[in-house]
What we know:
It is built from four helices and 14 strands. It is α+β, with helices and mostly antiparallel strands and about 270 residues long. The radius of gyration is 18 Å and the shape is globular.
Amino acid sequence: MALKHLKRRHMVAAAVGAAALAIPTAATAADAGTRPGGTPHTGTSCTPVERYVTLAAEQRRVLKLLKGFTVLRNQADVDRLAQPNSATGTQFAALAHMYNSMKGVGMTIVNVGMQGAGMPTLLFYRPDPKATNVTQPYVPNFPYRLAGWGYVWPYTPGKAPSYPTDAGLRCVKPTDWFVHERSVHPADTWQNIPVPPAEDWKGEAAGSTAPTAEECHCQIGEAHPRFWDLHVFLTWSPFPQVSMFNPGRPIPGFDAVAGKGFFYPAKPPV
């Protein structure tokens, strides 16, 4: 695909992706793990074993959804992944930072279709380990290998999302969620410029409007409000790990800056 066509296609997809991040399409799977005669444990009430087991179930669902796409070998694979899934309504069609890789996260692809448990908002791919520069927005580093995925919800101060009846995510705790700051992905680098709202303590404001070019003093490629973010990473075992950044060998890329681009609210959510 010619470079100019690649740029045009992904800039259009990024605009759709920004809308998907701002207003996720919620679709939560039904719970298959309710205990007879009672309700399932949720959040902080789950035992460590329950948390492992439920997250393992979520990993199985996500890997089933992504069968054939755990490795992206070329642009044709990216294009195939971008097609609507008629069975689930998912569509992983927007590159949040183009082909930039984010440190500890990877190259990010946004689901612009149905989202929810088992159907994550974000996919994270580790670039080719032999690549020497993984922060060029229009220069891909194939093959990409799936490193993890993420879920996104509009940011409500003090109140984290939950999936109390879901077999895969019911043991996620409020404090697992962090805030993805109100930000701009500038048109020249497609990396990340945080533009926090005015507030007395970090996480107090909803930050529900996307930044403007005047605020960031830049040309906008994509802009989005604050949102809740939950990252889940593969560990090469049946049990994934919830973490802001990937465990193990760090994924290379530009720095989102923990505490600025990504942060935990000063007052923990419930």
